[in-house]
Amino acid sequence: MKRIDHAEAASHFIAAKDNEAFHDKRLWDLRQKRDRIRDEIPEWQALRDLASVIKEHALSHLAGYLEQFETQAKLNGAQVHWALDAADHNHIVGEILAARGVKTLVKSKSMLTDECELRPHLERRGITVVETDLGERIQQLDDEPPSHIVVPAVHKLRGDVAEVFADTIGTDRKNDDPHYLSEQARLNLRPYFLDAEAGMTGANFIVAETGSVVVCTNEGNADLSANLPPLHIVSVGIEKVIPRLADLAVFIRMLSRSALGSPITQYTSHFRQPRPGSEMHIILVDNGRSERLGLADFWTSLKCIRCGACMNTCPVYRRSGGLSYGAIYSGPIGIILNPTQDLRKYSNLPYASTLNGSCTNVCPVKINIHEQIYKWRRVMSEHDQLPFAKKTAMKIASRLLSDPKAYRRTIAATDAALEYLPRFLLYTRFNAWGKQRENPATPDQTFYGWYLKHRSKPK
Amino acid sequence: MKVALFVPCFVDAFFPEVGIATLELLERFGIDVEYPLTQTCCGQPLANSGCQVEAAPVEALFVKNFADYPYIVTPSGSCTHHVRHYLDAIPQTDAVRHVRTHTFELVEFLHDILEVEAFPWAEFPHKVGLHNSCGTLRGLRHASMSELGEPFFSKPLALLGKVKGIEFVTPQRPDECCGFGGTFSLFEEPVSAKMGHDKVSDHKAAGADYIVSADSSCLMHQKGCAERLGLDLKFVHIAQILNGARA
Ligand code: SF4
């Protein structure tokens, strides 16, 4: 699999000036809203501690809580399936739908089903899959993956959306009024809701104690997807289990505040049992999670509640867009999740970060995101995933910087210093420094030279 | 008090005046400053790229150079951050542990260890915007961080506030990374430059004449960006202002 070139993709994103400026501003606004609403909760930091501890407890007792959940869910009348990987998951969904002759599936947003690439799998089996979250629907119609885990089409301007809708659902190309566009999307979606034989949702949390599934949305589309058709399928990653209903309060208080700076999502729906005459299936998906749980440096990434706050605050993400990460999960959380799926393909991602640490500070479950990014760099180097030129530069630098005499010889003349230092830095792209920046001026002497002249005592 | 001065490689080569200001400033407080002549680098650029094997001999040399001093002071937040938090490519001997816990960035050394009350020689009659590098802000905790909503504090502002005539301006996004990020500045050139351009524009819009920082690397990047954009901004290391530079 080819390595994702984040820098290259980012350069195209930045070249579309209006989109980049809007994207940066919109997400920075979310970050600021989040800051303001955080200030309304004096115990915010205590909540973060609590959320982190609950998640770490659940993850370190994962098997037990999952079995408890399964038992409870079955008692409630739901059917529970276990999927080892994406293929397994897709197969299970396909079989459930085929057995009931389902032709149309309405779906609310679920990163997991994107992760498993469920849609193309079902479409190959002749099933129409309709995304019902507005942002996700825009992305589906544009045949693009989501660029953000909470606001999937945030990289698009309203004019872009008008184009997509004009091409796909026949709206007026010149009308980019958001109300008009969302109304048109609603009109387009309504028949699908009414006709679909099955609905699918993800889950933000599943509760071991009650066997219930909790879905948080702002558009109510998950409720329509789950409640209108006679069959409700829930796909959920195994890391989403929390022990008790009481624990949920901690996360609900933080989720939407972290994500959008709003006190709570418009809808927080608890699905506990199938409606009379209908079925409810819950698929518990591993797809690499157990393996991740076994990685000493990275297992806490499973605490993630997918709020997107780390993306909103990330200065790199805001200026490169989610699609530049070449993966379903982008931004800081994507950088630390993706390499467990494919080390080589995502080997550049840990370098798409300045390690500034803002992500770690906003994370409601206190994942040490930037430290994990740093650790992933070590893994990449250990596994020979660094581009040859970079590795060679590092080797040369290592020899030079560990040999004071050779170092001084190289740096002695200031000209040589200027030669050497940028070359040491400039291993990747030719003259990357000077493209959009001026070079530093060359001083007449090094500090070392000055010190010898002015301070050094002869020995 | 005896202190070893660590002058990172790019300061040595490109910003000798920052090393000189640091040395003179420490001497003003009666400190016996020594600059071990066989020093090179703390290993950060290598370790930051994940190259522990390559970082190891550089870190070993760093420790060898500095292990015998009670304090190691450097005008670089990111190097201090590396030494304190990440210098672990080599076995953690007593000498290594000593160096890791006794290396201080200049601002913290002045603020926390020397507890400096005044800089009578310092006067800087200009409008300055402070840039806290991410290594100093979130790594060394130089100042309160906007993400946490904690009570305001700022060690660099506390020191700069003792300088005569200085005036501060605050950009819209004071905490945002400037995009230097070490090798990030080259490996991720498009984003790095965009972040740098945004950063200096933000300071300019706030009315800054100077951007001051405890990290020369961020300043080098921002200066390069400002010059390319044709912005009339000047850049100065905090050591220079505290040592009495007037411009
Ligand atoms: S890593 Fe933390 S901040 Fe980022 S999406 Fe997950 S929970 Fe939110």
TrEMBL record, chain A:
Which branch of life, at top level?
Answer: Bacteria
**A single Pfam family, by name?**
LUD_dom
**Annotated InterPro entries:** 4Fe4S_Fe-S-bd, 4Fe4S_Fe_S_CS, FTHF_cligase-like_sf, Helical_ferredxn, LUD_dom, LutB/LldF, NagB/RpiA_transferase-like
Stretch forming the signal peptide: none
GO biological process, alphabetically ordered: lactate metabolic process
Q: Name the UniProt key words of this record, in alphabetical order.
A: 4Fe-4S, Electron transport, Iron, Iron-sulfur, Metal-binding, Repeat, Transport
| Presence of keyword rRNA-binding | no
Its Gene Ontology molecular function terms? 4 iron, 4 sulfur cluster binding; metal ion binding
The name under which this protein is listed is Lactate utilization protein
Organism from which the protein derives: Defluviicoccus vanus
UniProtKB/TrEMBL annotation, chain B:
Designated name of the protein: (Fe-S)-binding protein
Q: Which organism is it from?
A: Defluviicoccus vanus
The source's superkingdom equals Bacteria
Q: What Gene Ontology terms describe what this protein does at the molecular function level?
A: oxidoreductase activity
One CC-aspect GO term:
cytosol
User: Where does the record place the Cysteine-rich domain?
Assistant: 3-83, 128-221
